Amino acid sequence: MSSPLNVHLEHYEGPLDLLLDLIRKQQINIYDIPIASITSQYLEYMQQALSLDMELGAEFVYMAATLIHIKSRMLLPRDPALEDISPEDDPRRELVDRLLEHERFKNAAEMLQQKLLVEENVWSNPQMLAFLDEAESQELAVTLIDLVRTFQQVLDRAKNRPVYAVEGEDVSVPEMIQTLRSLLETLPARESLSVVDLLERQRSRRAMVALFLAILEMVKMQAIVLSQRDAFGDIAVRRHRRFGEVFASPEAIEAIEKGYH
Known about the structure:
261 residues, 12 helices, 4 strands, 2 domains, Arc Repressor Mutant, subunit A, mainly alpha, single chain
């Protein structure tokens, strides 16, 4: 298999980005990674990067060690008798799970960036009126840019907090819409929730992305209103006057479920 590396090396944010690029460019089945070939190409990238004085973080070195370890485990012969007693998991499984999770988050981030780029076309007047609290003129309108900025700030802070390994957590956007709907239904009509608090309650970046997209969808549905007391302040979310009407029929949620499947 020929190396996909270019003479002009691309810059990757982390080792998972590099591995995904190697796998996707060669149309490799991510569930059946040829670990020897991928390890060789990964080490080749590191060698070329070092020769060009590119700085690589410790995580790149750690991933190289991980790949070599997986490769060695796959090369070691397995005793058939032990295999019958205790079948060994595929040494690549944990890496594949990490790559898939990283790819899901990366795709969601790219989608958010696309939403930001088309903000003028999609979220400008008259739809932008959905962001306003029509009853309280002293509050400021919240734009998509404000919301994306808040989301990015929460993600940046989340990098420095402990990581929780939540088994089986794969929350969807429709599920997050139902969760936010339930939270808002317990509040008096004029009470609001903090978007920052809602995001920081989530235990994974995947859940944060799902919540962010759920907020965008509920704004488009005119189920919620977003507002700020001060410029660059916290964003508050409360029920829109059409909240009950929107959720009176299951059709709205069904349409969203189809869109995210």
